[in-house]
């Protein structure tokens, strides 16, 4: 095994020293070593990829679809994405110049932020939220400004946003993730309109991560891009809505002038996404079978959500019923204290149930746990039984 020359460690990007540990993957890996553990950790749908998507990938391989695609993705997929956005969210984008296919939404996050951030630039982020936003901002030399929403039902209010804009007038971007990971909270059309009104007279670029947009249980998802098309970059993908996490297909859509540098940077990172995966995503976004598969999964998620919310409330956890995604964000019972990391660690090691500490998701997450219900009802029932036993024994 090679040993790194000591002085080479001084050559690293100095922003690495500013990074806060993300923790989610590390915690999951550690918990996975516990024999027989029930995992409610990762946002990983337990469904198989729908048949129509698998067949599209198989056909792509059989047809020797194995050459470089355009850096922004195949024309067929970009047209399917444009259809999906128009049909589902009344967003109109030209497949040629206003849509770029990415290797998952996470790579899209990096490309969008890299196109915007210069060293020292501030990015507004409503928290608790997916910690990658803060990590990428930091590694690019920016400063993440966390807006704690824990005292407003985990909803970014216009007042909180206006206050953040007032105190950080030079902020470059605002990141919105809704439905939210980790809280499952989403926004009504009126709430989105009010946030848009707070942003429209600023020069903020809104990066709207809407990867869970198809998983809204009551009502319909409204994209902020409908109100702010000229200053919004929309991120989405096939991972959550179509159980295609391993296919790694996401996309960014936005106004042509912004998408120019974003698409160029994305292409530098990836050259292009995988042909067969893009063929599968074309079926996901461009066919009735793709939409029907999502609706069937969403119904199952809703049943699981209702069970888990009710069961946790009976055990003394405080939480509201989330209206989107496939997570619940539960406050620890009073008897369990407020150290979410210690509680989650003990629950994994002694109770054999793995969840993610809420503090990993930024300001406002302390004292909470994120539980994913993207798993079977049998596993959820077993998890609840074990949590109940753990609380009694603790």
From TrEMBL:
<keyword id="KW-0663">Pyridoxal phosphate</keyword>
<feature type="domain" description="Aminotransferase class I/classII large">
    <location>
        <begin position="37"/>
        <end position="387"/>
    </location>
</feature>
<dbReference type="InterPro" id="IPR004839">
    <property type="entry name" value="Aminotransferase_I/II_large"/>
</dbReference>
<keyword id="KW-0032">Aminotransferase</keyword>
<dbReference type="InterPro" id="IPR004838">
    <property type="entry name" value="NHTrfase_class1_PyrdxlP-BS"/>
</dbReference>
<keyword id="KW-0808">Transferase</keyword>
<dbReference type="GO" id="GO:0008483">
    <property type="term" value="F:transaminase activity"/>
</dbReference>
<dbReference type="Pfam" id="PF00155">
    <property type="entry name" value="Aminotran_1_2"/>
</dbReference>
<dbReference type="InterPro" id="IPR050596">
    <property type="entry name" value="AspAT/PAT-like"/>
</dbReference>
<protein>
    <submittedName>
        <fullName>Aminotransferase class I/II-fold pyridoxal phosphate-dependent enzyme</fullName>
    </submittedName>
</protein>
